[in-house]
Amino acid sequence: MSEPLVRPAVPDDAEAIAVVHHTAWVQTYSELLPAEHWETDTVERRAQRWRERLSEERPGYLAVAVVDHGVVGFAKAGATRAKEGIPPVRSDELWSLYVLGERHGTGVGALLLEGVLAPDRPAELWVAAESNPRARRFYEKHGFTPDGACLTDGLGIVEIRMVR
Fold first, then answer.
1. pTM summary value
2. Could you tell me which of 122, 124, 146 has the C-alpha nearest to residue 133?
């Protein structure tokens, strides 16, 4: 097995990103979301959205992690957005970071994080508060700490903001 390579995402990555995105959501959120959610949250639907995103000029930076020619994770960062009326406290935000479960603990996530946000760069992110302790530990390891901001997203998942 080769070492992971982190590179900018290209339009041809849309389907592979969708598989990682959907698989990670199933692995992380399947207990929290009703069965009906998965009737519309499909790999095909995510692939269509990623094809649209990758074909347009969109703000932010999107990177993929590739091992043996297959995408095993992705991350996106950009200018901070206000969420649910909560003003941002940093200028940069990690918008998403997902890695296939079998790659957890291999350093892929750290490479992706560093690929979209320099290690010393102040930033913020939102993470599921209770359902995702692994992610919270990962972000803490990389200098992020909860700052007390909290919200419930449109799917009913409680999220906390972490900053560094």
1. 0.92
2. 146
